[in-house]
Design goal:
- Its cofactor is [2Fe-2S] cluster.
- Residues 77-180 form the 2Fe-2S ferredoxin-type domain.
- One of its GO terms (molecular function) is 2 iron, 2 sulfur cluster binding.
- The chain is α+β, with helices and mostly antiparallel strands and 190 residues long.
- The chain has two domains: 1-37; 66-188, Beta-grasp domain (Ubiquitin-like (UB roll)).
- Helices cover 38% and strands 12% of the residues.
- It is built from five helices and five strands.
- It has helices at residues 2-38, 44-58, 99-105, 130-135, 141-147, and strands at 77-82, 88-93, 124-127, 157-159, 172-175.
- Strand 1 (77-82) and strand 2 form a beta hairpin.
- The structure holds FE2/S2 (inorganic) cluster.
- The site of FE2/S2 (inorganic) cluster has 13 residues, from loops.
Amino acid sequence: MSTPRVLRQSLQRLAQHARCYSKTTTSSSAPLRTHQKQQPRLPTAWSTTQISARRSLSTSSALQHGHVDPPKPGEELYVTFIDKDNHTHKLAVSAGDNLLDIAQAHDLEMEGACGGSCACSTCHVIVQDQDMYDRMPEPDDDENDMLDLAFGLTETSRLGCQVHMTKELDGLVVKLPSMTRNLQASDFKS
Ligand code: FES
């Protein structure tokens, strides 16, 4: 008659083992989840923002401004700059080049602090001939706003970065003013 008791005890032991096994399994998986949580997670949105921020910081290339291609033979247009020391620089240029890029490509003293985005007045030039000035497309509101900030503003003032050479402007003469606002390219870097 002891058999059922032995059997019952065996069954109880088995049940105990089963509970222990269940606990062990649960407790062994918990550290795994904890471990997974402690994995260095990549905050996707933040990383993307950071990467794009780094990209935007590296997009300012010195070659973007002040680079002009030499004109093709027979297609030269001429523009003359009168620098702050009253020296003249007659240059052969291509149609489409703007005065800021031309000046910088030839090491003339024109700051172009905003990089040609019409947000400063450091590329201020004074067109020497009223007739030539009248051939230019009229300055837009942004250019007029910036011109209002220019030192030595005249009736024929323009922003060099906004004036693009065309056949109509062949022979243009512009003077670089003796002073510009004290802005530098570094003022526009974030
Ligand atoms: S370079 Fe700034 S407005 Fe021309």
